[in-house]
């Protein structure tokens, strides 16, 4: 699993390219590390420790040398939700006044809560993208299976990943055909009806595809199990990385317990 | 905005979501046999790809949720299909996260199951002309119930989140209308081209 799997250029599930040191680690380690990080970060209570978690995630981002544009697109996915939080929370949380806007009064507690959420959400998203988003989707599914996810769910995940590639190609073809007939999507009934037919056609074709897939699986003697083709090797480097990660997370938790609120106030 | 990011919801909401989703998933996976597996995977992928299409709506554009349609076409299988889609979106698109996966999946899967159950109830009285209306209702209900559930999970996480939940709820009706119209067209299309597909979601119930 240490070699990178070549993927076709246009896919709806593009794994990001990461630094070599990252790709060398076992997929299971990367999944566990991302999950554990999320668990620790979500349980943090202080703004200072959440900021430290974000700094850790940013450091990891720099070290992983990800494509900046792909990363920006992921960050954009967060903005809508976080913007609503940032705009409402200062005004809805009771506490000492930060500033007033007409009859509305913003509290420092609300500001801190909004910043806390911002730090946590961004930190978890970044580490998830770095550690898991750089995996090949099929390796992701296999690793989940090895970590104890029910095999029926893993099979569905594996088949779905494969079919997404095929059906996306179909969808691109159909939309190209629409464009060739001068179709421009607008906010009107014509557009919605056309998209309805497009999705209907995708469903009909995928239904026929499912019959072929079932026959192909029967031909290969499918009885509830696939052969696992991956041969993951947990190496000493993985154990060392796991130990280092646990120490960092322990440090975060310790910092969260002992963070000096007064010193933080002075810093802000 | 049906995906709640990590770090927002409180621990009790997160654990309750994860617990209920796991329970629903266990029931759904038990109903999914070897023969139904490829069909579930292919339809799940088709709906995943369809939700990537951005539909223009005034000055912005929206992505369809299609969970109502999933309920109609897949029945119980909509639950694992939604979990799989959300896991992929969390890992490869940056939507949601590992701990909120349970809540996010529940917010989409519960409306899907309700649409599946609803159509099962009215099915004996349905005439062919009624199917597009069923599609429209499933589209609208799927989106609006998801909006209500997202707002409810947010509001349950703390008093300060209530106004944000209300703001969020306001963003759903336009999407619900578009999704209703598109789902009605999809169902009308399937009825003419592949009527067998409309019977699919029902088989797993009987």
From TrEMBL, chain A:
Chief site of localization: membrane
Places the protein is found: Cell membrane
Pfam families tied to this protein: CbiQ (PF02361)
GO biological process, one term: cobalt ion transport
Topological type in the membrane: Multi-pass membrane protein
Alphabetized InterPro entries for the sequence: ABC/ECF_trnsptr_transmembrane, ECF_CbiQ, ECF_transporter_component
TM region(s), chain numbering: 31-63, 75-93, 113-135, 235-255
Superkingdom as given in the UniProt entry: Bacteria
Record-level GO cellular component terms: ATP-binding cassette (ABC) transporter complex
Keyword terms of this UniProt record: Cell membrane, Membrane, Transmembrane, Transmembrane helix
Family in the record: Belongs to the CbiQ family.
PANTHER family referenced in this protein's UniProt entry, alphabetically: SLL0384 PROTEIN
Protein name, entry field: Cobalt/nickel transport system permease protein
Native organism: Allochromatium warmingii (Chromatium warmingii)
Automatic annotation (TrEMBL), chain B:
One GO CC term, this protein: plasma membrane
Transmembrane intervals: 7-29, 35-57, 69-93, 99-119, 131-155, 175-194
Keyword Nucleus applies: no
Localization terms from the record: Cell membrane
InterPro entries reported in the protein's UniProt record: CbiM/NikMN
Any Pfam family the entry gives: CbiM
NCBIfam families assigned: PRK06265.1-5 (NF004905)
Database matches in PANTHER family: METAL TRANSPORT PROTEIN HI_1621-RELATED
Name this protein carries in UniProt: Cobalt/nickel transport system permease protein
Organism: Allochromatium warmingii
């Amino acid at each position: 699993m240490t070699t990178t799997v070549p993927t076709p250029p246009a896919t709806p599930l593009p794994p990001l390219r990461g630094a070599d040191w990252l790709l060398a680690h076992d997929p299971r380690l990367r999944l566990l590390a991302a999950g554990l990080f999320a668990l620790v970060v979500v349980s943090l209570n202080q703004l200072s420790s959440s900021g430290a978690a974000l700094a850790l995630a940013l450091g990891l981002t720099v070290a992983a040398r990800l494509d900046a544009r792909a990363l920006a697109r992921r960050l954009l996915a967060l903005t809508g939700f976080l913007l609503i939080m940032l705009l409402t929370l200062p005004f809805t949380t009771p506490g000492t006044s930060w500033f007033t806007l007409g009859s509305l009064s913003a509290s420092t507690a609300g500001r801190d809560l909004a910043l806390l959420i911002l730090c946590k959400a961004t930190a978890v998203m970044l580490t998830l993208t770095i550690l898991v988003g750089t995996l090949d989707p099929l390796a992701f599914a296999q690793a989940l299976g090895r970590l104890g996810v029910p095999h029926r769910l893993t099979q569905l995940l594996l088949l779905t990943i494969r079919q997404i590639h095929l059906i996306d190609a179909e969808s691109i073809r159909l939309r190209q055909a629409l464009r060739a007939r001068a179709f421009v999507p607008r906010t009107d009934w014509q557009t919605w009806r056309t998209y309805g037919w497009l999705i209907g056609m995708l469903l009909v074709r995928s239904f026929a595809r499912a019959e072929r897939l079932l026959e192909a699986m029967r031909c290969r003697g499918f009885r509830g199990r696939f052969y696992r083709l991956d041969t993951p090797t947990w190496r000493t480097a993985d154990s060392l990385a796991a130990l280092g990660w646990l120490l960092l997370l322990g440090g975060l938790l310790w910092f969260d317990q002992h963070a000096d609120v007064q010193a933080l106030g002075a810093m802000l | 905005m049906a995906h709640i990011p990590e770090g927002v919801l409180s621990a009790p909401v997160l654990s309750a979501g994860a617990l209920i989703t796991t329970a629903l998933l266990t029931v759904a996976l038990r109903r999914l046999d070897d023969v139904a597996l490829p069909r579930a995977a292919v339809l799940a992928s088709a709906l995943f790809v369809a939700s990537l299409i951005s539909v223009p709506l005034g000055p912005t554009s929206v992505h369809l949720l299609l969970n109502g349609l999933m309920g109609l076409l897949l029945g119980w299988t909509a639950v694992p299909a939604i979990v799989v889609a959300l896991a992929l979106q969390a890992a490869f698109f940056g939507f949601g996260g590992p701990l909120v996966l349970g809540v996010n999946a529940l917010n989409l899967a519960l409306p899907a199951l309700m649409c599946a159950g609803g159509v099962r109830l009215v099915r004996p009285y349905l005439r062919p002309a009624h199917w597009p209306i069923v599609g429209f209702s499933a589209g609208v209900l799927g989106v609006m119930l998801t909006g209500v559930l997202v707002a409810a999970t947010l509001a349950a996480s703390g008093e300060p989140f209530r106004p944000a939940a209300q703001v969020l709820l306001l963003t759903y009706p336009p999407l619900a209308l578009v999704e209703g119209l598109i789902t009605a067209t999809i169902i009308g299309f399937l009825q003419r081209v592949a009527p067998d597909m409309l019977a699919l979601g029902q088989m797993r119930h009987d």
